[in-house]
Specification:
It is built from 14 helices and 13 strands. The chain has 402 residues and is α/β, with parallel strands linked by helices.
């Protein structure tokens, strides 16, 4: 790989759009711009309102992460795709980068790729797709056809877990790619003292406190976590044998347990409230049904003893990288690439999916064996491997054809 300065066009969601994709895109743009000439071509509309399940698509953070962007792409207006393609072609970029996470965006991305390549023939820019998901968690008719259509104009891929790598190679056995784990976020500051964060949230510092964070959909398994808590509170969750207590375990009264559910419900809020009442968990569960601005994220993670991801399906999760930035251990299910990042018995605990009893046992073990401090130490050692340098190096190599 040469050390030359590349001209790159990055097409993706950016501020004032909200969410982890926009944050990821901004960080990537900043990291690439340390060495290369980067233009971020962003969206004027991400989703039409009737397709968006949340309350707003706009980031309300007082401390947003931004990168200068040129809003041009309307997800449902093909004329905007052509204008964006014409603009990108005029820059004569060495590479075009896309962040891909759902087939809804394949028509826009694929059209831009084809038009730019046609305009810049016989030396078109290389198209690199940074893939969150090739196959969505919630499949719809036409998803695979749209993804395959986009892949026909993609030159190389960056995948962030073995699950996505396997999906890629099933669809294109000869695909050129790099596998780079999702980098750790760097925008939420340092972890606050637990007592300080809990005072801010009105939580007793002595309570055991769990965090479920991010938007809520069925595949994220919040209902499984609620059943696990109910089993624990009924005394039906045990660890056998209990094993040693490397960090100095402490007795926990499950009746004092607090679960923070922090994130906007995209579906199932009424069913969740009914299940909480059915299981007798009303006093144990706090529902914070809203998007969390950047400046408030660290408060919730700092207040929690552990972050729980009871997912039914996944590829990777940016929530783990937020947890690692803020030195929080994770208990997760063994789906997708989560086990690759959450090291069972070292930085967290990994349990079978769709198994509330196993999840409840992991929660008991976490407190009984005093695993928080040894896990935090391991996280501090491990998270260096999740650097943005690895991501930018992969981009450079693939744009230059390595």
């Amino acid at each position: 790989m040469s050390d030359r300065r590349l001209t790159l066009s990055l097409v993706g969601i950016a501020h004032p759009m909200r969410g982890g994709i926009a944050q990821y895109t901004a960080i990537l743009a900043h990291e690439l711009a340390r060495k290369h000439q980067v233009e971020l071509v962003s969206f004027t509309r991400q989703y039409p309102s009737f397709l968006f399940p949340g309350k707003t698509q706009i980031d309300t953070s007082e401390e947003p992460l931004t990168f200068p962007a040129r809003p041009m792409v309307d997800s449902i207006n093909p004329l905007s795709w052509l204008r964006a393609a014409s603009h990108i072609a005029g820059r004569r970029p060495d590479g075009i980068l896309f962040k891909y996470w759902m087939p809804f965006f394949a028509p826009a991305f694929g059209t831009i790729c084809r038009r730019v390549k046609s305009a810049r023939a016989p030396a078109p820019p290389r198209v690199v797709m940074i893939v969150d998901n090739l196959i969505p968690h919630e499949r719809r008719p036409g998803d695979l056809a749209l993804t395959r259509w986009l892949m026909k104009t993609t030159d190389a891929y960056i995948v962030q877990s073995s699950a996505v790598r396997e999906d890629l190679l099933r669809l294109d056995p000869g695909a050129r790619f790099r596998e780079v784990p999702h980098p750790v976020y760097n925008l939420f500051g340092q972890r606050q003292p637990r007592e300080e964060a809990r005072r801010a949230l009105g939580i007793d510092p002595a309570q055991p406190c769990l965090l479920f964070f991010g938007f809520v959909r069925a595949y994220k398994g919040l209902d499984l976590l609620l059943w696990a808590l109910a089993l624990w509170r009924r005394g039906e969750a045990t660890v056998s044998p209990p094993g040693p207590a490397p960090g100095g375990g402490r007795p926990v009264d499950p009746q004092s347990l607090r679960l923070l559910v922090v994130g906007e419900f995209y579906e199932g809020r009424e069913d969740t409230v009914r299940l909480i009442d059915q299981l007798g968990l009303r006093e144990a569960v706090t529902l914070q049904d809203q998007y969390v601005p950047n400046e408030a994220v660290r408060v919730y993670f700092s207040a929690a003893d552990v972050v729980v991801l009871p997912y039914r399906s996944a590829t990777q999760s940016g929530i783990v990288q937020i947890a690692y930035q803020l030195d929080r251990p994770v208990i997760c299910t063994d789906v997708g690439g989560l086990r690759e990042v959450v090291l069972d018995g070292r930085t967290g605990l990994v349990v079978p999916p769709d198994d509330p009893a196993a999840l409840a046992a992991a929660l008991v073990r976490y407190y009984a064996q005093g695993l928080e401090e040894p896990f935090v130490q391991a996280i501090r050692e491990e998270k260096g491997k999740y650097s943005w340098d690895r991501m930018t190096t992969a981009v450079e190599e693939l744009v230059e054809g390595a």
